Amino acid sequence: MDNKLIIAIIDDDSIFQFIAKKFIKSFESVNQTLIFSDGKDAIDFLYSNVDNQDKFPDIIFLDINMPVMNGWQFLKKYVELKSKIEKKIIIYVVTSSNNPDDFIQAKSIQEVSDYLVKPISREKYTSILSSFRK
After folding, report:
1. Are the C-beta atoms of residues 4 and 30 closer than 8 Å to each other?
2. Which end of the chain has fewer CB atoms at under 10 Å, N or C?
């Protein structure tokens, strides 16, 4: 079994995707970075791999404001699917929104580990990725 991490970035901002992937790729502990431009693609991926959870990410960086399916809609679908997920997945809401209502909503969802406001520093990625142990 590979003990390296699978990271998912769910964000419609191609610049954020590029920068985040570049930072994340530099960590030896990371095996793969999955990129989804909206919540629907990401939740469809989870549903289609529910019988092969080795493909599931260990950590998800989830944007709130996206087309097709936003972060809140993704989280609602994720909660519905969670009973079928055996793998522990840590979700970070990552957004440019500093709206206090978004922060309160994110904190009220048990599946959300933290609320991060963009831009995310290399030090923050280091802190998150180095603290994760499989």
Report:
1. yes
2. N
Q: Give the tokens for residue 4.
A: 């390296």
Where in the chain are the domains? 11-119
**11-119: which CATH number, 3.30.40.10, 2.80.10.50, 3.40.50.2300, 3.90.1030.10?**
3.40.50.2300
Query: pLDDT tens for residues 107-122?
Result: 999 999 999 999 998 8
Does the predicted model carry a pTM greater than 0.90? Answer: yes
Beginning with the edge strand found earlier in the chain, give each strand of the sheet holding 112-117 in spatial order: 30-36, 5-10, 59-62, 90-95, 112-117
pLDDT score of 132 = 76
- Peptide bond between residue 119 and the one before it cis (omega within 30 degrees of 0): yes
